[in-house]
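Entry for CO-5-methoxybenzimidazolylcobamide complex. Fields follow.
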Amino acid sequence: MNQNLTLLQSAIEAGKRKDAVALTRSLLDEGMAPLDVVEQALVPGMSVIGEKFKRNEVFVPEMLIAARAMKECMVLLEPLLVAAGVKPKHTAVIGTVQGDLHDIGKNLVAMMLKGANFAVHDLGTNVPTEKFVEAAREHGAELVCLSALLTTTMPAMREAVGVIRAAALPKVKILVGGAPITQEFCNEIGADGYSPDAASAVDKAKEVLSA
Ligand code: B1M
């Protein structure tokens, strides 16, 4: 294994963005394919940090700085990936449901999905239900991710699931999460998957997409 790949993975895990960007540059200068840099260093780095987050070994700030380091490397890599015709494995639309302005958890989920090579279209907060349908259609998304942080916006999540189901989007799977959301609520409203945190959202996304 190229030592710079190992160092890049460690830099991502530690959130050392300057080192991560410099190592990404070196790897590209050495002639490494951009997709190999993503798959052999960035994705494993984010996956390690996600697993540590699940075990409460690191917390939100560490996740954010790791994601920021990855994002800066992606600025270098993305144009090369696009030029090489490399497409992300899956496309997702994400947003916080109508009436709800909380976005820190939703942003973490979006970052982890990007870290797992998903194309993510972030609709922001207070997203009207129809917007999820429009965006899923526009981007050909296979996954719609709904976040809610308030008990008072859980009905908006229920409504969003109903409207997405009623739209002619047979391939779309729906993932839900947020502090007041539970597996029971997910089952009750007919979503495809629930996850309690951003790291397991990636596992759940892969699971529902392969079902
Ligand atoms: Co608000 N707020 N807030 N707030 N706020 C809570 C949620 C609250 C629990 C605080 C409290 O009373 N103890 C409470 C809700 C109570 C309830 O509904 N039962 C509350 C309230 C009441 C309110 C207001 C109504 C207050 C008021 O104005 N009277 C108001 C509502 C505004 C609105 O949305 N319309 C309000 C406003 C705000 C701020 C704007 C000030 C700010 C939000 C800033 C922002 O997001 N940009 C804010 C904040 C910061 C909080 C707390 C303190 C922190 C939330 C947070 O970011 N947590 C929160 C109390 C708390 O949680 N301790 C609180 C960190 C984040 C990483 O966790 O978002 O849970 P979380 O995300 C996790 C998981 O839930 C999961 O993964 C994430 C990472 O592991 N997850 C998903 C989230 N989405 C997912 C989607 C998935 C999968 C997993 O799949 C799609």
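NOTE: The mean pLDDT is 94.
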